[in-house]
Design a protein that fits this description.
By secondary structure, the chain is mainly α. Helices cover about 75% and strands about 0% of the residues.
Length: about 100
């Protein structure tokens, strides 16, 4: 399963994306407010930065899942079964709820 497929699967099966992106937007807005007024990002740039943070999280998760030998070259269906059997999405969603973004 590639990163885009995993991203879509997460977005369709749990609230981790919604939880994370809200926190990421808040963090990016806080960072933006600390910038000098003439160097502040517009709202679209802030959103892109929050989305980049999400892609990084999903890429990291995909890498960790891929390290399991049973998933190396497995089809997407096997990945989904593995995630269901091991409660990966529930744990991922819980971790997003506990996540604190402060730089």
């Amino acid at each position: 399963m590639n990163v885009d497929e995993l991203d879509q699967y997460i977005k369709s099966e749990c609230k981790a994306y919604d939880i994370f992106i809200e926190k990421a937007r808040e963090e990016q807005n806080n960072k933006n407010s600390r910038r000098q007024p003439n160097k502040r990002f517009n709202p679209e740039k802030v959103e892109r930065e929050a989305q980049k943070m999400w892609v990084s999280v999903v890429t990291n998760l995909q890498g960790k899942l891929k390290s399991d030998k049973s998933l190396k070259k497995a089809p997407s269906l096997r990945w989904k079964s593995f995630m269901m059997e091991n409660n990966i999405l529930e744990s991922f969603e819980d971790s997003m709820g506990e996540l604190e973004l402060n730089e």
